[in-house]
Amino acid sequence: MFREISMLPSLTMSRAKTAHGPVAPLFTLEGGRLPIIAIIGRPNVGKSTLFNRILGTRAAIVDDVPGVTRDRNYADTAYRNRRFRLVDTGGLDPTAHEGMLALIRQQALLAIVEADILVLVLDARAGLTPPDEEVVRTLRGTDKPVYFVINKIDTPKADPLIADFYKLGQEQLYPLSAEHGIGVAELLDDLFSHMAEPPDEETHTDIPRIAIVGRPNVGKSTLVNSVLGEARVVVSAVPGTTRDPVDSVATFKDRQYVLTDTAGIRRRGRVERGIEGYSVARSLRAIGRSDVAVLLLDAEEGVTEQDTKIAGLVLKQGRACILVVNKWDLKTDDVGAREAYKENLERRFPFLAWAPVLFISALEPDFLRGLFALIDQVYFSFCKRIPTGALNQFFQSLLEEHPLPVRKGKPAKASKSAFITQVATRPPAFALFVGHPDDMTPAYLRFIENQIRKEYRFSGTPLRLMTRKK
Q1: Residues 52-105: pLDDT tens digits?
Q2: Backbone angles phi, psi at 212, to 5 degrees
Q3: Among the listed residues 460, 453, 465, 458, the one whose alpha carbon sits nearest the alpha carbon of residue 429
Q4: d(CA 290, CA 209)
Q5: Burial (CB count <10 Å: 0-12, 13-18, 19+), residue 465
């Protein structure tokens, strides 16, 4: 039976602070803050390629088509044992004032405002273009350090292409090839003084990772922006707006959470090859590295077949899950809508009967007040470990009322034939040792699972029960 979660009015939310004051010659980790280095430039100059090269992994989707990157893509990394936060941005088109390019431009401008250091990427093959000059004029008003990178200098024959960029009046230019890694170390060497000194003692905090998943256009990016209180990711009515999984840090009652906005997952037959295929694959990986998956559903469209398939992917990867029905403000006048929707959930998601349900409107932050309390509850269950002694005491009393399945007409003696222990968390997994594992029916194992879930209040997390020969 699905359990609806009521709003908790005592909750308050705050967002992580990312804007900083004047840039110091050498950054220190005050309060755990990392210096932010933003990679900017017009579309298709190789920003994401440089981002991936510095990180040493394909963290951002790269394609020859302009406008692939849309949101600010953050990653914490280190160079020569000094740490910093690297930001990949969408193409900065100064002439864009409407449509998707204008939304991407807005995200790039926000990255410029919050960054401590700017890396401007220019395309050597295209030469110094009027849009490049307009971007440079935009940066003239900032007192932040700006490093001018001339990309796509792949061979010595390309060196003469650098001359055109000295018109900008910069004494220091950084010719490099982001694709092949040529010249990247020289850039990082000069950025080194802006990176943070490592702390004297490493501190490890357990930060829950929350993946926001669902079909295209159900409101995932709107939900993330509402929680953070800022336009962190691009929101548009155009399906497929989000491409790279975007990590953001939210703070609630002095506790941090990593929220990952993912690309909408369409039916496999409708996923186009190329950029969309990469986006969906990265969404699936984002689910796998999360602790809790918030599956967003559309109140108006109801539960679709694709919703059930996405839920199955969450279950297959063993993640905790919360079902969040978005756009519920459009249904407030319908008295019987909530019960009807819950009945539909029970019918379409029998395998997620343990997942709590929350009805919200992502456009109205008041509806979001119960979200973090619910995330805490589900995350706690996801990580919960039951002591073996207490677990077996409960299990033996359970077997006295509901003995193991009959074997050859003779019921097994519970106290001598069964033993249970928890062998893992995230998700919780239990090993059941019995004399004859083959006699354990699926129905009996489901019964044991449900009893464990009820006794120890496992909410929102899958449980795994394995049988082993004693």
Answers
A1: 889 887 644 444 444 444 456 778 888 888 889 888 887 776 665 554 555 556
A2: -95, 110
A3: 465
A4: 5
A5: middle
Task: Assign 210 to helix, strand or coil.
Answer: strand
Distance, in Å, from the CA atom of 184 to the CA atom of 186, rounded to the nearest integer, reads: 5
Unique residue bearing structure tokens 């092949």: 180
CA-based nearest residue to 414, from 436, 428, 397, 431: 397
If residue 257 lies in a helix (H) or strand (E), which one and from where to where? strand 255-261
For the record, the structure tokens of 399 come out as 């077997």
pTM assigned to the model: 0.63
Cα distance between residue 415 and residue 238, in whole Å: 61
pLDDT classification of 411: cutoffs 50, 70, 90:
low
Please tell us whether the domain made up of 27-194 is placed in CATH 3.60.21.10.
no
Neighbour-count burial of 80, counting CB atoms closer than 10 A to its CB (0-12 exposed, 13-18 middle, 19+ buried):
exposed
CATH superfamily of 388-469: K homology (KH) domain (3.30.300.20)
**Per-residue pLDDT at 75:** 80
| CA distance between the termini of the chain | 34
Report the C-alpha gap between 293 and 85 in whole angstroms.
25
Rounded to whole angstroms, how far apart are CA atoms 255 and 350? 33
Residues paired with residue 173 on neighbouring β-strands, in sequence order: 148
Long-range contacts of 414-419 (CB under 8 A, 24+ apart): 417/470, 418/470, 419/392, 419/470
pLDDT class of 196 with cuts at 50, 70, 90 = confident
Q: Between 3.40.309.10, 1.10.10.10, 3.40.718.10, 3.40.50.300, what CATH number should domain 209-383 receive? A: 3.40.50.300
Phi/psi at 230 (nearest 5 deg)?
-155, 165
CA distances from residue 152 to 118, 274, 371 in whole angstroms, order as listed: 19, 23, 46
Section 106-115 average pLDDT: 75
Show the DSSP H helices in 258-386 as ranges: 275-288, 305-316, 337-348, 371-383
In angstroms and rounded to an integer, the radius of gyration of the C-alpha atoms of the chain is: 26
Residues 6+ positions from 218 with CB-CB distance below 8 Å = 264, 296, 297, 298, 326
DSSP β-ladder status, 292-298 and 320-326: parallel
In whole angstroms, what is the distance from residue 242 CA to residue 264 CA? Answer: 7
